[in-house]
Amino acid sequence: MISDKLFALVLVVLILSGCGVNKEAEVKSIAPKPSTSTVVSPEITEGTSKVTVEDTGKTNVQDSNTLDQFIKKIQPSNEQLQRIFKEDLDLDGKPEYVLAFGLEKGGIDNIFVVREDAGYHIIGKLEDPVMVAHLNTDMKIMKLDQTEQKFIVVYSTSEVDEAEGFSIFTVDHNRISNLNYNYPEATGQGSRKLEDINKDGVFEDVSYYRFQDTQKHTIITYQKFDSTGPEKTKVLYENKNKKFVFPTDPKDIIQNYLEDHYLRNRFFIHLPEMAEFTALSASPKNNFESIIDFSAMDYTGLDLNVKEIAYEANQRVFLVKSSSEEEESNQGLVFTLEKQSGMWKIMSIEMNDKL
Known about the structure:
The chain has 355 residues and is α+β, with helices and mostly antiparallel strands. The chain is 19% helix and 36% strand. It is built from 4 helices and 18 strands. A hairpin with a 2-residue loop joins β17 (332-340) and β18 (343-352). Residues 1-44 and 46-62 have low confidence and may be disordered.
């Protein structure tokens, strides 16, 4: 009996000991995993060697949270965060953040460059160099030549999209500089673009001047993006034929000749077509600007009053004035044209200043 009781006691002890081990194992197996938190951070984009930008998506939770707080601290009143770029702009091994804020979606009113040195801080604000009313609509981080240098490029338009231009900024540690800007401030219309027009890996500052003249000329001037090196010029014909077309009407020949006179003097370009209009032995030395108002050339086109004052079989004479001149005035240019081999040619251009 004693042996039976001893055996039963040992059995109870063993059972109780085994249950203790199993319960500990069970507790360990259902213990919850450490919780993780998710912070929604601003979209951060990096510039690449191309004009396009890419989302990095590599900002960690702690940095994002700190950056979020900093953005809220510096955010201008009533403006929304429009763009964020993270890029090593001065090539010192440490990235900068470029933050763009604006009142409306797509519009950019304030741009800050931020660095993280024992916390985030502003190293500078981009000062808009354009002096006339405009809208800043886009911002990019770009490589503009074959070096590793990166630039901040801000694109601008007018409110009615008749003008477009750009500004280029550099960052050198704590100094932000406007390297170059081009916007049609004088006329309020026209295209100023940043393009690799020669396809050589170096961008140019390209200006497009489109005219409502007889040949629908577009004059293109371009220079290296930092305004160094020679300025070059191209002449395009935006008419239906995409090339020079000799006018058949004598009045159109006079109009075309005076339009080309203006373009030649403004852009210092040679227009071979001017020689086709005349049978003159030399270019006239008259100061046409004292008689003709060329100011409308940049807007609606040259507005002339061309009146025929003499006519013979193969010769016609015209008095040419600006349309703004008084009708009864005889002050103007006298063009004499003669038909040669089926084409009208300018034989002489004289000043007529008789009132």
